[in-house]
Amino acid sequence: MKVFGDFWYALRQSKGGLAGFIIIMITLLMAIFAPIIAPYHPEQAVPEASRLAPSFDHLFGTDETGMDIFSRVVYAARIDVTIAVVSTIFSLLIGVPIGLAAGYREGLFGEITMRIADVVQAFPVFILAMALVSILGNNVQNIIFAIAFLNAPIYLRFVRSEVLSIKHRPFVEAARCAGMSNIKIMFKELLPNSLKPALIQSSVNIGWAIMLTAGLSFIGAGVNVPTPEWGSMISIGAPLIITGQWWSSFFPGVAIGITVFGYALFGDFLRLYLDPERS
Amino acid sequence: MRILKYLGKRLITFIPLLIGVILVTFVLVRLLPGNPAERLAGTFAYEETIKALMERMGLDKPIWQQFLIYLKNVVQGDLGESWFTNNPILEDLIVRFPATLELITFSLILAFIVGVSLGVLAAIRPKSIFSRISSFYGLLAGSIADFWLALMFIFIFFYKLGWFPPPIGRLDLMITAPPQVTGFLVFDSLIAGNWAALQSSISHLALPVLTLGLTVAAPIMKITVSSMMEVLDSDYINHSKVLGLKENKVMRYSLRNSMPPIVTILGVLYGTLLGNAVLVETVFGWGGLGQYVTQALVNKDYSAIQGFVLVATIFSMFVYLLVDLIYMAVDPRIKY
Could you tell me the pTM of the whole model? Predict the structure, then answer.
C-alpha cells in the first residue's frame, strides 16, 4: 500500500497529473455507466427529431437521423477507450518480451528483430493502419490488432535499449552465478528494471490509439455506422457543417480532444514520477 | 566525396529496408480471404476461367516466386490496374501527387515557422509566459484530431465569416487552371501570370494548410525548445556572450547550431503529413492522393490501396534519406 500512497501523494502535488487522472477516470466512468448516464438509446434514430440544436431535451443536439448526440458521445467512450486500452496492452505484450529477448541476445536474433522493426516503422502509421484494417475487414478486433501491431516496435525499442544498458550490471551477473536460467534472468531481473520507459509511453499511446481509431472511422475504414464512435460521429456530422449544424461534429471532437489530452497529461506526470532523473 | 561515401553506406541499409517494405505490401494483399483470381473473376465464373486467370497472374507458382514477380513489377513501375478507374495505378497516383505535395509542403513550411518561432521564444525566456503557452500548445495540438479541426475552421471561416471559398477542390470552378509546370497551382499561376488563379488557389489552400500546419507545429516546437536550450547552455555560447557579442548575433549562432535535430524531425513529419493529409483532403475535397485512397477504400479497390501504401512509404523513406544527406552537408561535425 505504501507504493500506492506515494503515488497518490505525488499525483496530488502535480496539477497536470491530477487533471489527467481525473479526465481518465471520467472517461472510464462514462464508459462503464453509459446506460445510466445516457438519456436515449445511442442507435435510436428518430426521423422527426433530426438536426435539432442543443437544448434541455438534447444536451448536444441531434444528428441527421435524429440520434441523440449526448447519448452517443457517452456510449462512444466504451468503444474508443476499449480499443485504445486493449490495443495498448496487446502491443506491450508483443513488444516487451521481444524487446527483452532482442536486448539479451544481441547477435543474429537481435539484429533480425531490429531490422523487422525498422521495416514496420518505415510505414507512415496512419497509412499502414488504414490498409491493414480495410484489408482484414472493418471491425473492432481488427482495429485493435492493427494498432497493437503498429505500436509494438516502439515498446520493443524502449525495452531493448534499457536491457542493453543494464544487462552487464552486477545484479545480473550475480543472478547468473547463482544459476538462474536465461528465461528467469530475463523475466525476474531484467524485466522489472527495464519497463519504466515503456510504461510511461503507454499512457501517451492510449491517446494516440484513440486518435487513430477516430481517424480510421472518419474515412470509413474503422468502426461501422451506426455504432457510436467519436470519429464516425464526426464524419456523420461533416456534411452538416456547411449548412451550419456544427454540433453534430463539434461534441465528439471535443470528447476526443479532452480524452487524448488527459492521457497526455497523465503520461507527462508518469514520466516525472517514474523517471525523475531523466526528465 | 564524404557525401558519396556516406550515401554508399546508407544505401547498404536502405535497399534491404526497401525490399522489406515491398514484402510487407505484398503480404498485405495476401491477407485478404479467398483467392485473388476468384475475386477477379467473380462468383459465377467457371473453374477453367479461374484456373486460366491463376496461371496468368502467376498464382500457381510457389509464393516466393510470386513475390519475385511482384518485386520485378514494382521496380518496373507496374503497380497493377485500379479496377475502379481502369488506369494503371502508378499513373493515377502520379496525376494526383502534385496536389498532395503542394498541400503538405506548404503545411510543413507553416509548421516550421510557427514551431521554430514559438520554440525559440520559449527557450530564451524559460520562465516567461511564452514557455507556458508553448508547453500547453504542445500538449493541446497533439490532442486535437486534425480532421475535426478542419471542419471547425470551415464552420467559422467559411460558413460564419465567409472569408474563404467552400471546401471543394483547389480552384474555383469558374477559373481555368494554369498550364502545369511544377504541379503546384500557386507557382504555376505565378509563372502563367494568372492572378485570378493565384488568388483562388491561395484561398483554397489557406484552411487545409492552417489545419495541418498548426497540428504539426507542436513536435517541431518541442524539438526546437530542447535543442535550443542545450545550445544556449553550451560553453561556446557563454563564451561569445562573455566576449560581448550582441544578443541577436548570439541568438543567430545558437539557432543555427540547434538546427540539425529540427531538420531531422522535418523529414519525419513529411511522411506523417502524407498520412494526415488523407483525412484532411477528404474534408476539403482536395482531389489528391488522400482522396484517391479513401475512394479506393470505399470501392474495396485493394491494388490501389496497396499501390498507395507502397508509394507513400517509399516517398517518406526517400525524404528521410535526403534529409540525412542535407544534414551531412550542412553540419561538418558529423562523421560517418
Answer: 0.89
